[in-house]
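Protein folds are increasingly written down as discrete tokens. With that in mind, we are printing a sequence and the tokens encoding its fold.
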Amino acid sequence: MKHIVITLIAALFSTGVSAATLPASEASDPNGDFAGNPASAPVFSSDVRLVTGAQNKQNDIDFLTFDGFAEGTLSLDFVFTHPGGKNGKLDFLLQREAFKNKHSWPDHYHNPGHYTESISGLDGDSAHKVSYVLDGYTGPIHVALRFYDSDAFYGRDKRPLGVIYTAERVGAVMPAPAPSPAPVPLPAGLPLALAGIGALAALRTRSRAS
């Protein structure tokens, strides 16, 4: 489909996940989880550049809504990683209309902007990227992530999080800061006039004192 560019990136990821203070242009759930129902999905406005979330149980669902895209935004890019894990699996669903319920799939007939993909084989040494090219579309976009396998939640080496993901708006044009107003030049004779007024006031004060 022309809207989607998919790449598999070889990389080396650490097994730990560290928390960080995020600027206002980023959003993250402290428990690595967002709403499991489309009715309560978080809505990210166009000024939120980066969203970070994660799988926090074996059968986990995250719903996300991207409200709009600023002028110049080229794509919405998702990157999925599985630090320290083996064979992470999920279903990726994206559409331009809201999901009817947590079990619904994109409407192939009435929603031409839909995309679905089953992602598997995520391990600690790779990442999977999905780039949804906007082609001038300004939103909204609704996303469902259905995680259904990760070795993080069974065995002796359990971890609190399974597959981790980021969603980033790429290429947004940020408004330039407003220029400072230029100083208004004073008339050439104004300083002399002010000096003259000051001198007259001084003479008046002296005459009253005498």
